[in-house]
Amino acid sequence: MGFRIFVSGSGIAEDAIQALLAEGCLIETGDPSDTPEDLAQKLRTFNPDGIIARQGKFTSAVLNAAKALKVISKHGVGTDTIDIDAATERSIPVFITPGINSESAAEHTLALILSLSRRIPLQDKRIRKGVFEKKSYDGFELSGKTLGIIGFGRIGRRLSELVAPFNMNVLIFDPVSQAEALAPSLSKVSTLEDIFPTSDIISLHCPLTPATKGIINRGSIAQMKNSVCIINVARGGLIIEEDLCSALENGQIGGAALDVFEVEPLSKGNPLLALDNVIVTSHVGGISDTSFKNMGLKAAQNVLAVLRGEPIDLEALVNNFTATQQ
Q1: Domain limits of the chain?
Q2: What top-level class would CATH report for the domain 4-100+288-325?
Q3: Topology of the domain comprising 102-280
Q4: Residues 103-108: what's their mean pLDDT?
Q5: How far apart are CA 105 and CA 147, in angstroms?
Q6: Chain centre distance of CA 143
Q7: Do domains 4-100+288-325 and 102-280 have the same CATH topology?
Q8: 324 pLDDT exceeds 50?
Q9: Burial readout 282-315 (b: 16 or more C-beta within 10 A, e: otherwise)
Q10: Active site residues
């Protein structure tokens, strides 16, 4: 009998499914709306050997419902929805799919920056309603503007390359990244206070941790220009949405483009949806034809390597678990 693999959320690419089936795996897929209680019940019943986590919160209680669980692979790179400590206590390795969605996320960020700066969604909306006029248009050029990038991993670095032709000044804040030679248009700063007052656009590309949770809040917004635009293609918890919404409503900041939210899916009554200076997308920044396929295949490879007792990819491993897998 093959391995039992649970895939949470919206599923994975067909190529990845076929790779698992070729190994004789039995696959069960969850639902994007699964609560932790739903996941616990499904895992208790299915009792998987491995989990590919795309959506859903894998709390300690959820993981403990899967008694035979031996490995977890995140479909992506954000592990804030997985209780890493609980997995480690059970000697369960947790993996990510590093580097695969960086290009897609960086391109999506650039698309949001351009859409917000040129007011494209608002223009489209107004024209469809029969309003065709130029007097109120207030789009701005990127050339000469300052872009503050918070988090300079693969995505932040790629974004800095993509905006190079626009002749922007780029400020980088990342206390983790090592010192490196930077292009002349890039400047690394030592504190967030160096980013907030001077940036025309602020783009978030850091993980959600206790240190980064809510870094965009009433206090940090008060330091920013009233024309600043905030882009978030990272994690919803980086922004306190109530504070952001208030600042957008009262003109304290110029606009926001958000791919991620504190609570997903976004509720129909979320006040952000009523604002013309906000662009929203449905947590798809890291998804493209190429990245979706490759994330699924890499997640499947991570799981199968452990279950077959083969060498694992240490770059993809996120918890302190190596000894018995080499």
Answers
A1: 4-100+288-325, 102-280
A2: alpha beta
A3: Rossmann fold (3.40.50)
A4: 97
A5: 17
A6: 27
A7: yes
A8: no
A9: ebebbbbeebbbbbbbbbbbbbbbbbeeeebeee
A10: 235, 264, 283
Tokens of 151: 């988090």
pLDDT at 24: 95
Spatial CA neighbour of 94 closest among 104, 84, 106 = 84
Is residue 180 predicted with pLDDT exceeding 80? no
Nearest CA among 244, 165, 250, 242 for reference residue 202: 244
Residue recorded with tokens 């890039």: 186
Cα separation of 283 and 322, whole Å? 32
**Length of the chain, please?**
326
CB 287 within 8 A of CB 101: yes
- Residue 99: which of 17, 158, 12 has the closest Cα? 158
213-222 long-range contacts, CB within 8 A, separation 24+: 213/237, 213/238, 214/238, 214/239, 214/240, 215/150, 215/239, 216/240, 216/243, 216/244, 217/243, 218/243, 218/246, 218/247, 220/192, 220/196, 221/247, 221/252, 221/253, 222/252
> For residue 179, is pLDDT > 70?
no
326: confidence class by pLDDT, cuts 50, 70, 90: very low
Instruction: Report residue 155's pLDDT band, with 50, 70 and 90 as the boundaries.
Output: very high
* Average confidence score pLDDT of the chain: 94
Mean pLDDT (whole number) for 149-170? 96
pLDDT at 2: 87
